[in-house]
Amino acid sequence: MSVQNEVRIVEVGPRDGxxxxxxxxxxxxxIDMIQHLAACGFAEIQAGAFVSPQAIPQFQxxxxxxxxxxxxxxxxxxxxxxxxxxxxxxxxxxxKKINFFFSVSRSHNIxxxxxxxxxxxxxxxxxxxxxxxxxxxxxxVDIATAFGCPFEGPVAIPTVLDYVEKLAGxxxxxxxxxxxxxxxxxxxxxxxxxxxxxLFPEVTFGMHxxxxxxxxxxxxxxxxxxxxxxxxxxxxGLGGCPYSxxxxxxxxxxxxxxxxxxxxxxxxxxxxxxxxxxLKIREKLSGAIFRSALLDAxxxxxxxxxx
Amino acid sequence: MSVQNEVRIVEVGPRDGxxxxxxxxxxxxxIDMIQHLAACGFAEIQAGAFVSPQAIPQFQxxxxxxxxxxxxxxxxxxxxxxxxxxxxxxxxxxxKKINFFFSVSRSHNIxxxxxxxxxxxxxxxxxxxxxxxxxxxxxxVDIATAFGCPFEGPVAIPTVLDYVEKLAGxxxxxxxxxxxxxxxxxxxxxxxxxxxxxLFPEVTFGMHxxxxxxxxxxxxxxxxxxxxxxxxxxxxGLGGCPYSxxxxxxxxxxxxxxxxxxxxxxxxxxxxxxxxxxLKIREKLSGAIFRSALLDAxxxxxxxxxx
Lengths: 307, 307
Known about the structure:
- The structure is a homodimer.
- The relative contact order of chain A is 0.15.
- By secondary structure, chain A is an alpha/beta fold.
- The first copy, chain A, has an eight-stranded parallel sheet.
- The longest helix of chain A has 15 residues, at about 115-130.
- Chain A has one domain: Aldolase class I (TIM Barrel, Alpha-Beta Barrel).
- Chain A is about 40% helix and about 15% strand.
């Protein structure tokens, strides 16, 4: 079996990077952010979330944001949705792909979406039967706390595999294992990644890491070695989950791209353009914490340039 | 051939972490820093450098610092030395181990120590013949810019191997490949590490990474996979090289320890003690930049503690 060497990087900054901010970002700034990112070559950008404005006020202007980015052709724009109402809103806004999400950890899912993991799966089943006739809507499912829960501690691999099996049984073909609280380590990442790929070869698995304790890129590297070829990142290392104590920013997209490109593994992203976009976004989002060594240091000078 | 699973972490914060600061750290604060670190279980701590006070004023009080840490028994204290004068000063202060250093890149070595790499090797030869009768002084040689030069760009693997061979010919049995300017990537790290170990099985190789562009831990992970078992780190991610444009801090020791311990690989370091020490050191060194996600986030809560 041949394994592809290229990786697909999904930019989730406009969603996971903004969700945690107490200040509301203006609709214009969100549109600018997504437009800047779309110009860097991403095949997929998570543009926001269709959630209750009471729960997360940051995304109350999703319709206006999606209207402002409807010119984008190359990148597939996606949004996080927790329920059927979110799916309907996403369809009304013309989205071609949604990310349903739930936590395998009961405490975390109840904190996050006020229901048990199994209730979330029942909701997903309802969503899938409603949208199946409209085959143009792709579905990715984000499996949160797959590497540990901030409330319950370690999550056993068989627990995650059980949920993967249930999702596969519902016909879900794309799943993202999310290290919501930054609790993964390379050994666990490799073990879970290898088992998922071996047991469910029909599913495309991605991974989503937070860099809470600095292990983000090391986890991505081991995941790649295990055969994972799709990774989320947030520009500038923005973000975090408001319901996960200690969950600081996502792994920085530009550092992920840099690592792979330096290793000769193609991402399809224009890295200088991404760094330029990151600087523009950082200028606008003055209330946000950017955590990216590469963004601070810049790319290495071309050979001999500093002589 | 069995490969040991434990890793040896050398704390270099008191040297590489302070060298870059424009403010002089008081002798008392340096002694405190080394004492705090020595209590965490390190087998080796780089306590400073015996260099010209004109070149690096930060280390002008090395004699007083060494006097203040002479009670330390468990950790071997080392110091960076560029020449025979430094070796004599180190011996006078009672050091049992020195780190000689030079860059394989001509431009960088001239910038750093005002001589060519080959002139540095000649100096080392003189040092080794002077100290050989005193067999109690161990010598580690730090090979700077082994993964790239901030002035000249990429450094070819055969260039590094040539210098390793010359050092081995001089009887040097411990060498550290240093990513002085944060230009290494996991693929290069693995390739150089594997070749060094294969060609020079009698030599113990370590690696020293700066986290300039975020790849520090990913590089360490791949180096480990290649068989490297000794890594430098600076508490809190302090440091950088004043002669390397863009060379920000070292990889944070506590993140390195955390990664290995989470993977079940023993470091011998008391991680909670190290984090406590890092917080105390951060309080004292108000002018320094600490860059460590783990230090900011803290260790994961014990299972169930947040329920």
